[in-house]
Amino acid sequence: MAKSMLIISRQAxxxxxxxxxxxDIALAGGAFDLPLAMLFLDDGVxxxxxxxxxxxxxxxxxxxxxxxxxxFGVDDLFACHTSLAERxxxxxxxxxxxxxxxxxxxxxxxxxxxxxxxxx
Amino acid sequence: xxxxxxxxxxxxTDTRLNSCLRLLGSAxxxxxxxxxxxxxxASTAPRQALEARADNLLLFVLDxxxxxxxxxxxxxxxxxxxxxxxxxSVQYDKVNTWL
Lengths: 120, 99
What we know:
The complex is a heterodimer.
Chain A: E1 5-9, H1 18-31, E2 36-40, H2 62-68, E3 76-80, H3 81-86, E4 100-102, H4 104-113, E5 116-119
Parallel strand pairs in A: 1-2, 1-5, 2-3, 3-4
Chain B: E1 3-7, H1 16-23, E2 29-32, H2 45-52, E3 59-62, H3 63-68, E4 77-80, H4 82-91, E5 94-97
Parallel strand pairs in B: 1-2, 1-5, 2-3, 3-4
């Protein structure tokens, strides 16, 4: 049985490579049918805003890749309620359909459940 | 399952420590190394946040990083060297390094 992995993405989308790298890990792992999940925490939730235009910064749009996660079998997508609230973001306006919004205690239990955790 | 949360960034530039404290499980521990040890600076918000949880917080600090920065350890923190750090990483079910 493959080890389960939780990828915690906590950087904003366009200021550095971290957001894309976290997503690449998820997509690569999903392609190999690894049991994995993604949690968007802190500035990571900013990746979930709709209608972003990375082309303005001559960057590739990673928000399109977020939509691809389910095609790669990564359906367990979570976002931190506190991080969303701090940034004035409501769960209804997010870019990812299968996203579940979790409270702090639920996130502690989520981290506990996975064999491995990567935080980027 | 227990998780060892490893922090290495200054708590004054970033929210890693705050978020980690929010999400910490009851069997988890925190290890401060590098600039994360500045969280022990006296009379600061990160120090107070740690102190407020001292009764049920297992806190390890990489000794050489704290000593290099002249940060005395409170009695509720445990100093560790590199061999002990390796032992801890094996002892806990997983290590979550907040990169």
